[in-house]
Amino acid sequence: MIRLQDINKINDYEWEIPQSYRNDMRVAVRLFVTHRLLEDALGDRSLEQAINAATLPGVMQPVVVMPDMHQGYGFPIGGVAATRITDGVVSPGAIGYDINCGVRLLGSQIDLGAVEPVLSNLADALNRRCPSGVGVAGEYHLKDAELDQVCRLGARWALRKGLATDEDLLRTEEGGCLDGADPTRVSSQAKKRGLNQLGTLGAGNHFIEVDVVDRVFDARAAQTMGLQEGMLALQIHCGSRGFGHQICTDYVQELQSTVHRYGIKLPDRELVCAPLDSPEGKDYLAAMRSAANYAFCNRQLLAHAARLAFEEALAGVIGNWQLHQVYDIAHNMGKIETHVVDGKKVKVCVHRKGATRAFGPSSPELPDVYRSIGQPVLVPGSMGTASWVLVGTTESMSRSWGSSCHGAGRVMSRSQAKREMRGDRLRSELEADGIHIRAGSLPGLAEEAPRAHKDVDEVVETVHAAGIARKVARLRPVIVIKG
Amino acid sequence: MRSGYKEIQHTADWALQVWAPDLTGLMQQAALGMIALMGARLRHDRRLERTIMVSADDNESLLVAFLNSILYEMELDSVGFDRFELKLDGLKLHARLAGAPLLELQKSIKAVTFHNLEIRPVEAGLETTIVFDV
Question: How far, CA to CA in Å, does B20 sit from each of A192, B14, B32, B35, B60?
Fold first, then answer.
């Protein structure tokens, strides 16, 4: 097991596991953590998993790990690894089963004080209109050909159906649609799972949350995003549902034998991979992009349902109940991106698993509205604690593969959380704090309790101080919907 | 006890330690443990059966493929299983699953992973630890 003395301190917010730590490492691991968060990380296997990621063929210097890191399976949550297009690999397990799990943030001009008496009605309307929970189907029952369209069009499918606006798409990573999706590379099992799950939240750590903008730290950036202190905002956290889970499952299974064919040796079978320019690698990328587009469309449809819920609950109470899109970002994704390394532009496949793209100002990938401030980075907390809106920086481009943290990060196992907290008591505590909770499963609620997570404020302070993201606004929850 | 399962600590996901005298027993215990972790309760008024056939290059891959096939059946048709009749022919598994429609499923599992997966011989037979993505 790695020990603190094996890790070099660069400064108060940056540490490094040198390539020399283990013979099979191809690059170093760079950790954006405080001493205290590093001690947390030494308590599980997240660092060992980051070291394993540093053995992937074609991986570039360095593998990066965020302060919200925790142990995952194969690749750590909070990990970022870039592999060379020329001789690198793509690893489904380094992206995760919930392909394009991500967060969407919508802002409003709704003053909390004006709607406080009807928040319970709003919670009910959101809970009714946004299907959530284990095995719950949505209202969109797709035919096979429609599912293929969703795979190819992403959130543009919703635009065609009148369920999105041009501005929604403009303010979504990749415009809500990754090029290169090919549903013919997706198994029939995955497609069957995808037909009835579009427009659903699912369960686990996914949620819809109404927040109030608690504090603004960067007035110019907040104004650009349409965020004002005291006004409501809405977060949607979910991904590609069973469709994406099955695609990752299929390819992790299929690539078990592929790695032997290409002579790739790995320390963990969950890291199986294929060369980016191989037929197997291209097939996975085409299928993964199909799932990514499904997820973009899924969050778009949930945003549409949330807008209807706001109208249902607030029309007649206030004059303007509109929700405008701030941004939609992925935090489990593999993307082909161009980065500057040693002064040269290099095309790489950036694997982000539990890490958010955080492109800095003037990045050509950003819509005009955000090009001067940098990309909005959305960092959800854990029910009852804050969430954060940040922006990417020039330094994130040069030091963390244009990436930042994605959330609070777990610190306690689910079984321990369930032993220590009862779901009904937790719900009462949160409601006593003025948070309206609608939860499908009380044990599930207990597993996601705030105490099971790191302090999101500490995580955010770390990336802010390290310079790989900048604080814009802090959000405080008033309604939480969980499956 | 010669065969069984127990949940072990994992920060983010679920991990299950499973042991049994032989491979089919191990697979059966893994399936029972996985379904118990999900908090599945079955209806008593109706029974059903499903057949699963999977093949793989090694025992670990076979175990993962078998458990993922169960997850697929459970999600697609909202059913659960409590009895397993398994036949192994080399690295091909033929499974007859008996169960019922779900009354309740507290938690879903996204996938069965290969993370550090190894089926180890022990004095009483075989043992392994499986990590599930939840």
Answer: 34, 20, 12, 17, 15
